[in-house]
Amino acid sequence: MYWPKFKRTIMFPGQQADEEVLLVVREHWLVFLTKLLAWLMFAAFLMLGDWAINVYAPVLNTAPYLGYVNLLKSIYLMFLVLGLLILWVMYYLNIQIVTNQRIVDITQRSLIHHTISELHLSRIEDVTAEVSGIFGTFLDYGNVYIQTAGETERFTFNKVPNPQRIEKMILDLYEQLPEDLRGHPHEKK
Length: 189
Hints:
The structure is a single chain. By secondary structure, the protein is of the alpha+beta class. The chain has two domains: 21-26 and 97-177, Roll (PH-domain like); 33-90. It is built from four helices and seven strands. The strands form two sheets. Strands 1-2-3-4 form a four-stranded antiparallel beta sheet. A hairpin with a 2-residue loop joins β2 and β3. α1 (29-56) packs antiparallel against α2 (65-93). The longest helix has 29 residues, at 65-93. The radius of gyration is 23 Å and the shape is elongated. It starts with 20 loop residues before the first strand and ends in a 13-residue tail after the last helix.
């Protein structure tokens, strides 16, 4: 199985010099698309509002009301653009990274709050891929659960593409560890 190699650049905070990034994964594009469709509903309200004003309240298209209506539409449009920006930033910055030494989960909770969790490969107890639903089955996306014995009992890759391939990759990396490091802390003996 081929996994793309990334350049030896620092891709995330805390990356070690000898650590090789093997996989960077985000939510499946369909998940982003569904959020974008919800956003488009709010954009449609702007056009629906213009239509409703023209049909039911044409007096609002004349002075002095026109200025107030345009101000409200501009504020609404500003929040629409801000919402689209937030959707993209949250999608782009929520990533899981698999390296030759560990798994790093970067969760962007808001524009100014994120959490970085890491799991050394030696602490893995079980890896499970789950695909459910019609879209998940046809478009091959689902969840990957990584069971650990550590503080964070379960790492979850939510709605990622190719969950079986990710599961296999993580298990293969675990199997490549020396026998004496499996199921033990990441310190080398």
